[in-house]
Amino acid sequence: MAVIIRVSEARVRPERFDAFHEMIVSAVREFPGHYPGLMDHEVLLAPPDSLLYVSRWRSEEDLAGYAGENWRDQPVVLPGEEEYLLGPLQVRHFTSAPLG
Predict the structure, then answer these.
(1) Which domains does the chain possess?
(2) Does the N terminus or the C terminus of the chain have fewer Cβ atoms within 10 A?
C-alpha cells in the first residue's frame, strides 16, 4: 500500500513567522483524532520565511476527507491564515516507494 505524503508550503512574512508557527501547531494538534486516515504529520521550519506542513495519509479517500474532492490542487487554508503569508500556499503530493 502506497502512503500519500502531502506537503503544504507557506511563505510567511518574516515578522509574523513565530506567530504563524504557533497558530499552525495549535490548529493541527488535534487532526489525528479528527481524520482517521492521517497516519502521521509534522511541521517543518526554515526561518525566517518558510514553513512546511507534512502529512501522511493511508489513502486518497482519507485525504479527500480532510482536504475535499480537489485535494490534488487545492491547499487547505485556515481562517485568518492569509494575513501571515507572502503569497498563496503551495501544495504537492508524493507517494512512498520502498527502498529495497
Answers:
(1) 4-95 (3.30.70.100)
(2) C
Q: Are 35 and 65 in contact (CB under 8 A)?
A: yes
DSSP letter assigned to residue 3 = P
pTM for the complete prediction?
0.92
Whether 15 has a pLDDT exceeding 70, the answer reads yes
Contact between 17 and 27 (Cβ < 8 Å): no
Query: Residue 26 is placed in which grid cell?
Result: 495549535
Q: How confident is the model at residue 97 (pLDDT cuts 50, 70, 90)?
A: confident
| CA 19 – CA 70 distance, rounded (Å) | 28
| pLDDT (average), residues 11-36 | 96
Q: Which of 93, 12, 80 is nearest to 51 (CA)?
A: 12
Report the C-alpha gap between 48 and 13 in whole angstroms: 8
Rounded Cα–Cα distance for residues 63 and 82 (Å): 23
| Cα 36 to Cα 99: distance, rounded to the nearest angstrom | 26
